[in-house]
Design goal:
Length: 287
């Protein structure tokens, strides 16, 4: 199923566009030291707010730092953060959702009431409350976003597990003497994780947007690190005189989040069993 989904993904133009954008940002992040024309933290006050030139292709900021270099190095911060937050939330959500759905009973009640409690608050507001308790900083921001991000994965996985565990092939494996751990690892999780993969892909885009928002508020990545949200915060004072200070990092965030959403939407369509059934029915009618 996964192989067929990825073959269908390769024929999707939106997914192809998103993949190209992501690959470009990934290439820029990996080879930033060789691509960036300047050190992103080097200051030159005599060149502050310089326009585009051969030395500074996108100009400089209020401290004379190269905007292009900071955008390039910003990809090295934002992309890994998005993957870490979404990946960790995905793993936690799959584990908790599987345990809750498979074992049921009091365990299910406790875990789902915890999920309901966390879902009762807007995720970003709850993250702000956690950061306010532990203090600003990248590690606390990541912890806060993971703590609020795993719930949606857990709820979706739980629903899928409740359906899959009643299938006949699970009863057959159990009748052959397989234990719960073997059944969960080899038969439950492989059959419930596919619908969650598109959500995780789009979750990476949300994580990048959320960490940029927290950094803009001074609660995430701290200056002088060249992070896109921090660049937005630095440039807001100069919005009228030098709008590129906000527009360029804003475009970088927009394109990155858009690319994750395009790929995530395509994955969702590729993994949708109803769509496959409709295609198969249409082919039968033609025959």
């Amino acid at each position: 199923m996964i192989e067929d989904a990825f073959q269908e993904l390769g024929a999707n133009r939106s997914a192809l566009l998103g993949t190209i954008i992501l690959a470009t940002f990934l290439f820029v992040a990996l080879f930033a030291p060789y691509i960036a024309p300047h050190d992103p933290t080097d200051q030159s006050l005599k060149n502050r707010l310089s326009p585009m030139s051969s030395e500074y292709p996108l100009g400089t900021d209020h401290l004379g730092r190269c905007i292009l270099s900071r955008l390039i190095y910003g990809a090295r911060i934002s992309l890994p953060i998005g993957v870490i937050i979404a990946g960790t939330a995905f793993v936690i959500g799959v584990i908790i959702g599987t345990i809750s759905g498979y074992f049921g009973g009091i365990i299910d009640q406790i875990l789902m009431r915890l999920v309901d409690l966390l879902l009762a608050f807007p995720g970003l507001i709850l993250a702000l409350a956690i950061i306010a308790s532990f203090g600003p900083g990248l590690s606390n921001a990541i912890m806060a976003l993971v703590a609020t991000g795993w719930t949606s994965y857990a709820r979706m996985v739980r629903g899928s597990v409740l359906s899959v565990k009643e299938k006949e092939f699970v009863d057959g494996v159990r009748a052959l003497g397989a234990g719960d751990f073997y059944i969960v690892m080899h038969h439950i999780i492989p059959n419930v994780v596919s619908p969650v993969i598109p959500m995780a892909m789009m979750g990476m885009g949300y994580a990048i947007l959320a960490i940029a928002g927290l950094s803009f508020l001074g609660l995430g990545v701290q200056p002088p690190a060249p992070e896109w949200g921090t660049m937005l915060n630095d440039g807001r004072i100069y919005m009228k005189s030098a709008p590129q200070l906000m527009m360029l990092p804003g475009m970088a965030i927009m394109l990155t989040v858009l690319s994750f959403n395009l790929v995530g939407d395509a994955l969702r369509d590729a993994f949708d069993p109803k769509k496959k059934d409709k295609i198969a029915s249409a082919m039968d009618v033609k025959r």
